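Example 4.3 (complexes with small molecules)
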Amino acid sequence: MESRIRIDYSALLPFVSEEDMAGRQERVLEALGVLETGTGAGAEYRGWIRYPETVPREELRAVGEIAAEVRQEAEALIVVGIGGSYLGARAVIEALGHGFAPLLPAELRAGPLVLFAGQNLNGRYLEELLEAVGEKSLYVNVISKSGTTTEPGLAFRLLRKHLVERYGERGAARRIIATTDARKGALRKLADTEGYRSFVIPDDIGGRFSVLTPVGLFPMAAGGIDIHALLEGARAMMAPCSVPRLWENPAALYAGARNLLWERGKSMEILVSFEPKLLLFAEWWKQLFGESEGKEGKGIAPSSALFTTDLHSLGQWIQEGPRTVFETVIRVGTEAGRLAVPADASGMEDGLGYLEGKRWAAVQEMAYQGTKIAHHQGGVPVMVLEVPRLDAGFLGQMIYFFEKACGISGYLTGVNPFDQPGVEAYKNNMFALLGKPGFEKQTAAMAETRKRFPRGKVV
Ligand code: PA5
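Answer. The structure with 5-phosphoarabinonic acid bound is encoded below.
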């Protein structure tokens, strides 16, 4: 690996000084130690820390073989999952794939179309998905650790029926690949009964930390991503992110700085990128930090923006709104930008002639520099994650870096970074409203809250 991603701290100054950080060092290193030694809450879910080097060879081989079959035989792969069983794979596939993959002729695509289902409860989405798939040769990868999550469960019912109707029971069973728990859960049982090929989500890795397990690796490999380079990238960050010295450990530095900012009233972090392909990566990041830290009334609100697009929408709020926000910019090296601004003979007075011959990458670079300075002047601390290139290796580095920082940050915040008790609240109400047996008590509790609603007006 020629180089690694780096955190540039300079535009945090003077909001967070080096002295401030030095004063925080002990607490950050303590949180790092708690994470590494497994002495904190949720310690049983730290399998992801070593997984990039402990991933079973057999599993990796099977991922490669079945992905090759899918690439050979499928025109479309529908990946069914939600939350941690969905976002990572989509983030990497979108980051590394062609920006307009669905519009490319099949021979120019890196593999089958990788489509997603089970990440919402919208019937029209599924109708349109099946309409778009049409007669295309189809495989399905259903991903659920519990096997009972409503959104993917319902989508899988529909897709399984669709596959059986098209290919028969045996044909469908060959085209369904399950990713689930090794032993327990409804999906494991079904996979074993029906003879689906399957991958294991390790017991000690929770959903939002599972992107580098078969949860993410299989759909990525089927979509043409070099998963070995991705894992290699993650491995390259293991040592730097465990160094017990603040100024040498990028994950500790990032976690420590954002924790200090939070204590100083910066309650929202915006993950910014100028790279449209990182839109879904930001969604993955939001889940990672939101579910890990947002509990017990604590936690920085994770938000994201794509520049310069959002400078024409959110930009005003960032520049002049409440000063409760800081930015983390993922800055991707611009070497790939070859396109240059053409001369224009139309006579249109667009005032852009001074940019003729300049590379788009150079124009965007100045937009980045200008925005960073403007936001800093406007009272927004800015951290920058320098990423040399958008490739599988650096994506692997970014994933591992953010996961490690998230674990440290959770312990610094004083919460269990590996549970998500709050996710049950909407589910319990929904189950009660849908009449799921066993949720009768929930109906009574909801009725109490609902009594307040009629006093509100609908205008
Ligand atoms: O991070 C998490 O644990 C969640 O986002 C889960 O991944 C998500 O709820 C899906 O759960 P499951 O894989 O059990 O269907």
